[in-house]
Design goal:
The chain is mostly helical. The protein is built from eight helices and five strands; from the N terminus they run H-E-E-H-H-H-H-H-H-H-E-E-E. It has helices at 10-19, 45-60, 65-71, 75-96, 102-116, 119-128, 136-153, 160-176; strands spanning 34-38, 41-44, 180-181, 188-189, 194-195. A three-stranded antiparallel β-sheet has the order 2-1-3. A two-stranded antiparallel sheet has the order 4-5. Strand 4 and strand 5 form a beta hairpin. Helix 2 (45-60) runs antiparallel to helix 3 (65-71), helix 2 packs across helix 4 and helix 4 packs across helix 7 (136-153).
Length: 212
């Protein structure tokens, strides 16, 4: 397990992560450089940094770059949240026998682009959520896997009841993975399947919802 070495609050930690270009390695000698451990496998600080830098570079290239940066000030925490959630969802999908191939992803994305008003507009919408352009296919795949797991459970994830049952199933998987987060990033909540105060990981931009 990680040893807590700081009393920083989540909000203070977020501010530190935004300000510092490089993060110190994890304090646990057993897992040097780890931001989190999921099912015994590391998510490294360098992997997290690379994703954050990718988003910031893409945001900086837009006319609204400054505003996007301000609106995604907790990007390191949100990104780590997504990286952990990806692994929880992947295990849930595998256990349910659910897959999403490249053709499925391209069909979903094409439909979302049409609804959003074009590929560029969809990229902008995801960038507002702190998702870099080269991560969009991964996010689309997640939506397809979530739909598949929901179908496996016999629920409609567009309803509150369906969301609750899906969340319970994901929470069960989350607990089984023994998720251990470096304290400087907060604490993983198995019940909510979320890191600290970051937002619900399976919410998508409005125009990308319900595309199958």
């Amino acid at each position: 397990m990680f040893r807590r070495r700081t009393a920083l609050s989540v909000s203070a930690t977020a501010a530190l992560l935004v300000a510092a270009p490089l993060l110190a390695a994890c304090g646990d000698a057993a897992h040097p450089g780890a931001a989190a451990i999921v099912d015994g496998k590391r998510i490294t600080v360098s992997q997290l940094q690379a994703k954050v830098k990718d988003v910031r570079a893409a945001q900086a290239e837009t006319p609204q770059g400054g505003q996007l940066v301000r609106n995604t000030g907790r990007l390191s925490l949100a990104t780590l949240n997504g990286m952990i959630f990806d692994r929880v969802l992947a295990r849930s999908a595998r256990d349910a026998g659910v897959t999403a191939d490249r053709a499925d992803v391209q069909r979903w994305r094409a439909a979302a682009e049409r609804q959003a008003g074009g590929a560029g507009r969809l990229r902008e919408m995801w960038l507002q959520q702190g998702i870099a352009p080269d991560e969009i296919d991964g996010m689309v795949r997640n939506q397809l896997l979530l739909d598949g797991v929901a179908r496996h459970l016999g629920v409609d994830r567009g309803t509150p009841q369906g969301q609750q049952r899906l969340a319970r199933a994901l929470a069960k998987t989350s607990r089984s993975l023994g998720i251990d987060v470096n304290p400087r990033f907060g604490k993983w909540d198995d019940q909510q399947v979320i890191l600290g105060q970051t937002k619900d990981p399976w919410i998508t931009p409005a125009s990308a919802q319900e595309q199958t």
